[in-house]
Amino acid sequence: MANEYPPSVEKTLNEADQVLIKLFNEHLTPGLAVGIIYDGKLVYTKSMGYANLETCKPVTNDTVFRIMSISKTFTTLAIMQLWEQGKLDLDDPVNLHLKGLKVQHKDPAAPPVRIQHMLTHLAGIGETRSLWDLTRPVAGLAARPNSRILSMPEYYNGLLRAEIYPGGKWSYSNHAFGVLAYLIECVSGEPFDQYMRKHVFEPLGMFKTDYVLSERVRGELAQGYTWKKSAFKPYPYLRLNTPGCGGIFSSVNEMAKYTAAMMNGGANEHGRVIKAETLQRMMTPQFQTGVFNMGLGFFLEKIGDHWVTEHSGGWPGFISSMRVMPDQKLAMVAFTNCSADTTEYATKDLLHRLVGLETPFEKPKSNPVLQHPEVWSELTGSYGPKQGFLTNFRYWGGMAGETEVYVKDGKLMLRSFASHEKKGLVLENCDPRNPLRFITYRGTYPVEVLFERDERGNIKLMMHNYVLYKKPNQKSMQFMLNTAIGALAGAGLAVLLARLIKRRR
């Protein structure tokens, strides 16, 4: 009996090859692997390019990629297993369960960092442990070649500082999930990687997924590449100091089993790893802004009227993306062995098609939504994040300075020193009900930009995962001066760090 799919799913499965070949050719990518999962089954796969350019080894469904931050959803799953067993509470201070390691603010009067804070990136922990991490591989997350992997108490020297009071600021944190992996060890009494194999991977039939470069994954591991001097260069394999935030090696075939469980209440054809009501709690917004939502370990977005549970991952040489739409019994995974946005384009584009919506990557020829220039004067000015260097690390890296909103040639514009924004992006109102909601495009990638007034009437700007606050009475010249000073300071810091690295060698 032939498979029966909804019309939009059937149409997309027939179009997927064409869509992916176009993406593969437009985005410089050595290899790409994509899977579509429907009703718990892997119904479509597409593998293109090479897992290894030197040996011409092709990408297949079994090619192993580093899925990086998608690993955070697995760490969360393990935490919630222990919660179901009554071994911890999400309101527990994280220090209650840690041995030889503490997470705390420098202010002794600060409230404790709780497990819930860690799972939702509200712990106030920075992207790096300190400025010194900028001298280490991948900001200190990677271990130097041939070095010993440190225990978590050793790695953090017994203490991980929170820069901001817990709950006071959303800031993506790899270190939070590194600590959570150690918490799982402390509570379960099992080494983290062994716990995950025994209680998550194997019950779901994921026998070729691992946290270490074991025999289960070594033979099929793709070589990661970076683009340098107009050519792909192999990126050396580096071990991760904090496996809980991004340590998993897996493939399309393996991740199809995981997403099947995510859309089916925590179970697939092989077994169950979590209760349906617990999984639902993980997929319920715990923290919300106007442009993104955070569940427990998962990001949540909407495609049309459908909630999507998603996470992506990145590392020099690898980019991954996973999106699950439980109410439509749909999921997608995409992996590539270079630092390209192909996976995000692939999963978003095809999921829109699968539910019968137009792709978001075609810029509309005209905007039918009435613009509201009468509010623009209130929006123009310079914006920046709340205080905190370590918790603003991603913002400074992504936007390269302050963000300015201004008017030019009768259009509302946004700019920074980042590659896409430095020439200015046009903001177009996209919601007839809200004159403060806009859409813009980084290249062809759509980005939602939302302005809001707080209870005091102050304006804040939200885009990506950034929440930025308008600086009072700051004009364009001052913006340019501030960003120029920031750029010079950054260049000086880079020179200093380079000298320090040279001395250490």
Q: Structural class of the helix and strand makeup?
A: alpha+beta
> Roughly how many Å is the radius of gyration?
23 Å
* Total strands: 23
Can you give the mean pLDDT?
Answer: 90
What features would you describe in this structure?
The chain is an alpha+beta fold and about 500 residues long. It folds into two domains: about 65-355, Beta-lactamase (3-Layer(aba) Sandwich), CATH 3.40.710.10; about 375-495, Lipocalin (Beta Barrel). The chain is about 30% helix and about 25% strand. It has helices at about 5-25, 70-85, 115-120, 150-155, 175-190, 190-200, 215-220, 250-260, 275-280, 340-355, 375-380, 395-400, 475-505, and strands at about 30-40, 40-50, 55-60, 65, 100-105, 160, 225-230, 230-235, 250, 285-290, 295, 300-305, 305-315, 320-325, 330-335, 380-385, 405-410, 410-415, 425-430, 435-440, 445-455, 460-465, 465-470. A nine-stranded antiparallel β-sheet has the order 3-2-1-15-14-13-12-11-10, with helices on both faces. The chain is globular and about 60 Å long. The model is unreliable at about 500-505 (pLDDT under 50).
